[in-house]
């Protein structure tokens, strides 16, 4: 939705099903949010009117035209996930739109048929909204309906509207009877996709650009003036997505390390930092947050961080490259973001990752039972004059267990790996079947999935990494939970977790502080 707003630059915006306000907050123009149970969690920067009612009741008002004030220019349907409600929402929005307006529809490509049930039985739920597409294509072949293969749920654009059309209204009784009889449905995900013929996600930007150009050209003809070329709107190259939970001590250092002036190389408008608070008892805050950074509260906190990370990637992030940090207690090295972007520039569809270190004399699974803790660690960090001396962290850290094979062996996970949005949509994000606290082996699974692809282009950063601060983490606090994590993995995949074996390229020149670890890696 962020790309849609940025490209189309609508005159106004209407959202059905605004709930927590995350997509509503993307609007920069006068907006209307309709939801009988809205609970806005984010700041709405545009002039916004909220209506605590159902969409049917809103559009039944005698004064709806006066409330709208002008034809709806951009609308988003994300309300009750039943096809008849989505159909009525479309009918009402089109009636109050213009021929050049755009209607966006969510939940059109369920990834599993369980998601598409008419009653919610799963965490992820699309309902049977997908049935709206065959209905519209049958009754309204004049509409331009395009469905995009966005991960998990799909994304639809409807253009070439006709506000004067009464075809749907005239046939609504028959359509509703067909819906209740089970018509316009498909038995499998494959059958749904065969009908939808979803377009690749990387075509969305070009398609939106074409729609914007068509709208501008028509507006210029109506005004009798030649349209001025649209000014370029800069999107961040990369989105850093960090998940944090109960990290009031550790997360501020992580945020500092992920933003300027600590991060060197890229300009601030070339990347964004999204810190997802996964339900901390005291909401995470940070004084003087830079303009390219934000802290958001996940709408549905869970003990596993995987949903929060996927949600932020799909709903919040604007970058064409996504960098994930599953553990918000990890300090970034000072050029991690810049070197990541350079690696992606040099190799298309790369999977870029860095090694991980633990601050302290040993890996923290060993040092914590021996008395290592936050007070000792704070003293170590002060002693090396971090953040003024960024390389000092290498001198007080050891390679994490997952990175113990070093730069030239196979590691098992990374807390700073990145992929293009195209790869994210094609191969998926974190597997949301991992429900253990901390995600269990979710980070190992996604790392293995990407580095072992037949066409994988893996790039290891030689000059950068992350540093784990001690905290009450389920993985590094000294509590041995590997057996439970391994059991969860085996239950999901039907077999044990296996360390990956892969080939990789290298990016960057090792900094002085890394030389001992390079030598350690060479010695095997």
From TrEMBL:
It comes from the Bacteria. InterPro entries: Glyco_trans_2-like (IPR001173), Nucleotide-diphossugar_trans (IPR029044), SAM-dependent_MTases_sf (IPR029063). Gene3D superfamilies: Spore Coat Polysaccharide Biosynthesis Protein SpsA, Chain A (3.90.550.10), Vaccinia Virus protein VP39 (3.40.50.150). GO terms for molecular function: hexosyltransferase activity. Pfam families: Glycos_transf_2, Methyltransf_24. CDD domains: Glyco_tranf_GTA_type. Residues 239-355 form the Glycosyltransferase 2-like domain. SUPFAM superfamilies: Nucleotide-diphospho-sugar transferases, S-adenosyl-L-methionine-dependent methyltransferases. This is Glycosyltransferase 2-like domain-containing protein. It comes from Mesorhizobium japonicum.
């Amino acid at each position: 939705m962020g790309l849609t707003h940025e490209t189309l630059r609508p005159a106004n915006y209407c959202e059905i099903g605004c709930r927590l306000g995350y997509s509503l907050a993307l609007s920069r123009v006068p907006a209307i949010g309709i939801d009988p149970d809205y609970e806005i969690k984010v700041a709405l920067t545009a002039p916004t009117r909220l209506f605590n009612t159902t969409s049917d009741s809103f559009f039944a008002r005698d004064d709806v035209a006066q409330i709208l004030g002008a034809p709806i220019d951009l609308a988003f349907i994300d309300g009750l996930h039943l096809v008849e409600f989505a159909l009525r929402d479309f009918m009402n929005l089109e009636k109050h739109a213009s021929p050049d307006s755009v209607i966006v529809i969510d939940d059109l490509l369920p990834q599993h048929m369980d998601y598409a049930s008419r009653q919610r039985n799963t965490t992820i739920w699309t309902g049977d909204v997908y049935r709206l597409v065959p209905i519209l294509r049958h009754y309204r072949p004049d509409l331009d309906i395009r469905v995009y293969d966005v991960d998990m749920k799909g994304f639809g654009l409807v253009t070439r509207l006709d506000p004067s059309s009464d075809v749907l209204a005239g046939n609504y009784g028959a359509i509703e009877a067909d819906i209740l009889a089970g018509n316009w449905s498909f038995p499998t995900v494959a059958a749904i996709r065969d009908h939808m013929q979803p377009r690749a996600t990387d075509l969305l930007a070009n398609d939106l650009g074409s729609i914007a150009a068509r709208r501008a050209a028509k507006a210029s003809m109506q005004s009798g003036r030649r349209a001025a070329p649209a000014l370029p709107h800069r999107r961040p190259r990369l989105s850093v997505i960090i998940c944090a939970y109960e990290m009031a001590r550790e997360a501020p250092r992580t945020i500092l390390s992920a933003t300027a002036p600590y991060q060197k190389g890229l300009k601030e408008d070339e990347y964004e930092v999204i810190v997802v608070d996964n339900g901390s008892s005291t909401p995470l805050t940070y004084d003087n947050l830079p303009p390219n950074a934000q802290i958001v509260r996940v709408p549905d906190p869970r003990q596993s961080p995987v949903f929060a990370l996927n949600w932020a990637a799909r709903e919040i992030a604007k970058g064409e490259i996504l960098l994930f940090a599953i553990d918000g207690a990890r300090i970034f090295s000072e050029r991690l973001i810049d070197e990541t972007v350079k690696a992606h520039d040099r190799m298309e569809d790369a999977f870029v990752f860095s090694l991980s270190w633990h601050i302290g004399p040993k890996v923290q699974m060993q040092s914590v039972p021996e008395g290592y803790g936050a007070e000792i660690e704070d003293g170590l960090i002060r002693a090396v004059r971090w953040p003024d001396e960024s390389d000092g962290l290498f001198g007080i850290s050891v390679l994490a267990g997952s990175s113990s094979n070093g730069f030239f062996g196979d590691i098992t996970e990374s807390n700073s790996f990145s992929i293009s949005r195209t790869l994210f949509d094609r191969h998926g994000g974190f597997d949301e079947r991992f429900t253990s606290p901390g995600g269990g082996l979710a980070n190992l699974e996604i790392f293995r999935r990407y580095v072992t692809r037949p066409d994988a282009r893996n790039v290891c950063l030689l000059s950068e990494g992350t540093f784990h601060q001690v905290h009450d983490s389920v993985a590094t606090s000294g509590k041995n939970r590997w057996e439970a994590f391994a059991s969860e993995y085996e239950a999901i995949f039907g077999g044990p977790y296996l360390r990956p074996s892969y080939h990789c390229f290298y990016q960057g020149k090792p900094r002085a502080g890394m030389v001992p670890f390079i030598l350690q890696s060479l010695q095997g």
